Amino acid sequence: MRINALSVANYFIELAQRDEVSITQLGLMKRVYIAHGFSLALLNFSLLDSRFDDVEAWKYGPVIPSVYHSFKCYRNGPITDKTIIVEWDEHSHTENYVFPDLNDNRARMIVEMVWDRYKGYTDSEMVTLTHKEGTPWALCYEEGMNNKIPDSYTKLYYTKFVNNIVESSKK
């Protein structure tokens, strides 16, 4: 299975369960987006599948609709289970229900890095992170429009973010 937003989301849920940390839909959404940004900046590849994973600028920050719709049943409560998807098996002509798993080691390292850095953040702190002036969300958001946030904006922002960390560590 290709890397996609749901496989990234499921891995964050695994990490939250491992660490016994509650994660909500809003917090999950922001962490998936931030991991996507770091992956673009550090590894030059997307954690999203361009066939069905877009990032949109919604009122409360960047949203990946596939993740939103998979976990919206939890509302503001803690997510307790990973999501499943239906895949069509061409050979047996049957539907298979599978958990999207994140099997790429580089992608897992990015998700783990983001988890370690942001697992203690509240949902409102995660929203604040993605709403700062100059963020891709801030550049794309128009009330009620759900504009797409281009990967080029996300990559540029997180590349600058990483470079600032590197520069400040040299001082």
Automatic annotation (TrEMBL):
Domain of life: Bacteria
Pfam families: SocA_Panacea (PF13274)
Record-annotated Antitoxin SocA-like Panacea domain positions: 28-137
InterPro entries reported for this sequence: SocA_Panacea
Protein name: Antitoxin SocA-like Panacea domain-containing protein
Originating species: Bacteroides clarus
